[in-house]
């Protein structure tokens, strides 16, 4: 749908044009008129569907550009997300004369306090730094008209909800509240239910379901060969913009070093990196100065980069839903994408949980020209993600023999 039909005023339609948007996404089409009408809204959509603009644009229209106090507050779990929402808000507010800013941990306190003192209409904040400012009485939230809770499921998972409750106590009881989340579990709805007033709900994708445009493939491999296979896949497929996920910070650094030694430009991004290092790595990845960004799940939601062709799971996540969030970094804005998973023998339990969550079996592949160690374990092609009983293998899927070739029976051997 065109933005002309959503009720945005001329200033914001000018901002939309300057941001390069031509048609509204489903989450924008569903949410913008409701927010403009003053309704509380629950929006369920994966990252990359345009949900930031879905709440930033109508919120700017609903508040006056006073600059003397905070009229709109966006609470989000990570620094990267705060920066990206701030960027959208600043771009949109060039046409409206609102002041937008962000506060988050990991950087100096004084500059953020000074920015608030100069005046902010729309503030984006992570919970910890916002409470620090409130406890020092360096921020006044008593006139907030619109509250946005972004990535509510992640804030619940990461234990931020007690902080969010403290923030809610600092806000006016009469306000508009918007809640956005990639998944809307019963646990999320239970803890947020009393913060919303007769909310309208907008769902644009089923919870915890991978985007259909993503081609998913498993590459069974010995754990000791993962780095070699990763390099082989990147070189063979001539991959140029790849996001690689590891389970730990140490492994992220180690994988990035291995790629660099192999001549593949890469950078690591995780919780132990300073904010400046994380921003620099993300910017280099965005502009193509490095072709591979290696990340941990803690920053996965904050990586908002267009045209990522491949997501590679160097390690499977412990939480099945994190697999969905990971692969959702590709196939954005209507484009297709691919997700490769390097599967070591000790990760088969994780695989079973993931396939049960997504409701389908991920097909196995071999990469031609790579010499696999015989210790790898290939999953049974007749596995059923929903039950232990056997079902026929999906037609047309390539079947890999125990040492990487096709067995005479065409089936997976699954032996050491």
Descriptive notes:
The chain has 416 residues and is of the alpha/beta class. It folds into 2 domains: 3-203, Rossmann fold (3-Layer(aba) Sandwich), CATH 3.40.50; 214-364, Rossmann fold, CATH 3.40.50.300. It is built from 14 helices and 14 strands. It has helices at residues 10-18, 26-36, 51-62, 79-93, 109-118, 127-135, 152-157, 161-169, 186-192, 226-236, 249-261, 275-286, 320-327, 348-358; strands spanning 41-44, 72-75, 100-103, 122-125, 146-149, 176-181, 200-203, 214-220, 242-245, 266-269, 292-295, 310-313, 337-343, 363-364. Helix 2 packs parallel to helix 3 and helix 13 (320-327) packs across helix 14. The relative contact order is 0.11. Mean pLDDT is 85; it is low at 387-416.
